[in-house]
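INPUT
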Amino acid sequence: MFFSLCYSLIEMQKKILKSDILKEVIKERPSHSNKTNYGRILLICGSKPFGGAAIMATKSVVNTGAGLVTLASDPINRTAMLSTIPEAMFADYYDRKNLSNMTKKADVILIGSGLEDSDFSEELIQETFSILTANQFLVIDGTALSMIGKRHLRIPQKPTSVLTPHQGEWERMTGLKVSEQTADANFLEMQKIGADYLILKSNASEIYAQKNPDQYNQLTIGGPFQAVGGMGDTLAGIVAGFLGQFRHDPFLTIQAAAYLHSWIAKQLSKQNYIALPTRISDQIPSAMRQITLASEQNN
Amino acid sequence: MFFSLCYSLIEMQKKILKSDILKEVIKERPSHSNKTNYGRILLICGSKPFGGAAIMATKSVVNTGAGLVTLASDPINRTAMLSTIPEAMFADYYDRKNLSNMTKKADVILIGSGLEDSDFSEELIQETFSILTANQFLVIDGTALSMIGKRHLRIPQKPTSVLTPHQGEWERMTGLKVSEQTADANFLEMQKIGADYLILKSNASEIYAQKNPDQYNQLTIGGPFQAVGGMGDTLAGIVAGFLGQFRHDPFLTIQAAAYLHSWIAKQLSKQNYIALPTRISDQIPSAMRQITLASEQNN
Amino acid sequence: MFFSLCYSLIEMQKKILKSDILKEVIKERPSHSNKTNYGRILLICGSKPFGGAAIMATKSVVNTGAGLVTLASDPINRTAMLSTIPEAMFADYYDRKNLSNMTKKADVILIGSGLEDSDFSEELIQETFSILTANQFLVIDGTALSMIGKRHLRIPQKPTSVLTPHQGEWERMTGLKVSEQTADANFLEMQKIGADYLILKSNASEIYAQKNPDQYNQLTIGGPFQAVGGMGDTLAGIVAGFLGQFRHDPFLTIQAAAYLHSWIAKQLSKQNYIALPTRISDQIPSAMRQITLASEQNN
Amino acid sequence: MFFSLCYSLIEMQKKILKSDILKEVIKERPSHSNKTNYGRILLICGSKPFGGAAIMATKSVVNTGAGLVTLASDPINRTAMLSTIPEAMFADYYDRKNLSNMTKKADVILIGSGLEDSDFSEELIQETFSILTANQFLVIDGTALSMIGKRHLRIPQKPTSVLTPHQGEWERMTGLKVSEQTADANFLEMQKIGADYLILKSNASEIYAQKNPDQYNQLTIGGPFQAVGGMGDTLAGIVAGFLGQFRHDPFLTIQAAAYLHSWIAKQLSKQNYIALPTRISDQIPSAMRQITLASEQNN
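OUTPUT
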């Protein structure tokens, strides 16, 4: 009753995201800067069967230009990650003391891509959540989202949090069936959960901010060429990489991250039946450059 | 006696496959779809010495755009697979309980590419065959085919089955020497075996359907640039990937899969003495896009 | 005394290799053929510290279009090989019974690239040499050559043998200092050793045939852009791959293999300061195609 | 007091590096040469968590055209290195006797990229430092630099030494805060430490020679597109690779190495928001060729 009441009161407006979001967020780097200015990103991702998800997320973090990137994962994923993205560092997530230290030092923590639903994963999530402080960003993806619902975990309030569920994960997290995932219902659930930002992935992804009850953004440039495994891991990596660099306005930043991801996919889809996640990732540096180049030419 | 009688009665007609089979099968994806609409594919492939076969098959499944792809294999192949195709998941096939669960949930099971002839492989094959149900597709490739003949295994009748032997494997499976592999003889063996579809690979591959005793299809665009190791594993992967997505008419679907495979190889052969299997695989997304693009332009 | 006598008697003539050797050897494949027509190649290469040599040799065998390629090596090299060339199979060379079986079945055996000088390597070499029969080709490369000199191993007479030393290895094998490596001296040593063919690598490599005491071939298209580690391993792989396919006249075949290798390197050197071995390897299929294409257009 | 006195006495002059440094150093190779003419490079790099740094450094050494390249590292990094750069050899750095032998034979030793700060690393560094002789080059990078400061290690005086710290490492090494890192102060610290050359990396890197107290070089073509992890490891590799080949005047050689690194990065930045270290590395052979090609055309 209360919720349906709120529902009618909120009357959220939808805003369709346009490409100008990219120019608003992706700016040329100042000359006097070094890698520590572009974020220390820690991914806590990738159980034994799902190492590829962790690798794809790490690859896209690196490709955004994040300063220092570490994947903490099951050590079974070490060699494949190193072979694929030597730019990133690797940590064994069973070394909890080290993980805890790294978590404290990170600017952005991405947790959940390729984690399996297990007691160990729950421990990792809980401990991570308990450590984080106000100046950190927390991106929660994949199974970590389903586990929050199933295992009644609480999202920490100190860090700025971003959830990146697809519709199925959102359902498992909140109980809202896909047909019930209206903007207002989504926003209310987000309020209950206490997340700061929500990217609800679908064929027309929606982006919500806790601070912004009147309006949400919709992404209309995605397409079914993105309907393949690994797409979400790649997005989560872009979101984390962007938050490491563009911290001025996180809401704009995650909008730009989501837009860029689909924008590259759409470009690829002109020549490809599907946009493979690793190929999207490969295009991140050139796509970001197209944006700053266009800005230069307009000035 | 009986066979030669049947032989004369059947009088199978040969139909040469044309490129229009690609347009009939490869359709633009509907906007409102997600990865679960494009099939959950399980590969049970790759013993210790033949991990590359499993990797090539997995790579081509992923490249067709299949939704969720898992390779169940000897764990020794895990890191190489992850390094090559992070888009796929990996399972240890010695964890039989997990394998059995995954088998039940899969839409398409590809078994045999790079399996060695062993008692363990026989157990894997038998257990897989015993689990499958009516709504599933089963692609049997490589050594699994030879083992069916040698070890007198029976192809399960519940799932829709596709066999992808080359002439040597077909001989080991059926006892038919290459010189005896006439269309009618092939069809009769297929009937005895109880397979639904047969792709008999050669320099002019033939495609048979149990339901279609009057006619078989022949592929005339292949060439000797395909005569290298790994070619069949790549085809098996395309067949499995296509069955995960284009389920309307499996006979047409496997024709398109085989046609696409040779079509890409032929394109590559214009610039290359041989068409390396991994390079064929890399071209799948763009080749499929050429088809839908041509369809768009005609409408 | 005897040797200097022979020296003056032989008076070997030098013939400069021209590009027409490529057209003489690299022919379009007949349509009715399959991978078993293009050779079963076994590489016995790669000790623990030198796995890369084995991988580069294997990669270039595969890229020539050889039918079935297996690398027998230290198992520590398995995953890197699978990640790099899934088209090849892998065998643990400590499984001596299996290795012996594979050796018997192979058409071409390449031994020595990346083998370390050890008692175990000597055992491998000796056992391989003892198994080989008249219809097989044996390519001996790298440390296996130095070991033949140092450990007084005898080259087997049944298979057709090809040695691929660089000048330093030839010195370690024969005792001939680089300054003493005249054509006649080289030929005499080759006679003593009992090898059928010799590719003596240098900045102007020379190719000798036991059956051809009057003349040797020289390669003048190589260059210092080839002076990097791994160059010889790549050549050995091309030689082995070619012997698997073009068996009509082995002397011509190895000339074409050596020529192709330097021809690709030279092409690369137009745009690159050095011709990296793995990039040479990547170009093999297209370079071979250029040859058959030119032949087509002339007919 | 003494230092500020010296400061005013030295009055170092700044020279901006121009692209002609590339032509001065990168020369076409003489025809009569082989890989042993281009240096035996040993990298002692890469602890467990930082294998990627070692891989990137090794990759760039190979790509410069160095003759024989070996990475001595934690064996956990072996497979990823082999998968990425088969042109290089690998040694387990726990095998100290072998490492000591290889160190003696190397022309250039690069130590420190991706080493962790540990007692074991200190042992490695100390032993390496104690072995080196007058004809060898020693490049010290990464954590080895911080450890020199923190653990009071002494740079060996026999080999020609090059330090490649970024400003933070230079601070940890010398105690000089970034704001205090003036040319004169840097030079004085370098004198105290006893290093022959210093590349002090920043957004405008500076290059010093012990023998040259009047002048230092500055690199003004770098940019913030280089502010990503792995950039320094790639530079260290280019420096080591160049010292293996261009030994005439080491001061010029390291200037050219640093210039080339930023020059490639700048080229990449025209099309890419950031210049990924591994992509810079891939461009080394073609960039070096551009230089010799330009020299050819001018003659």
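end of record. Confidence is low (pLDDT under 50) at residues 1-8 of chain D.
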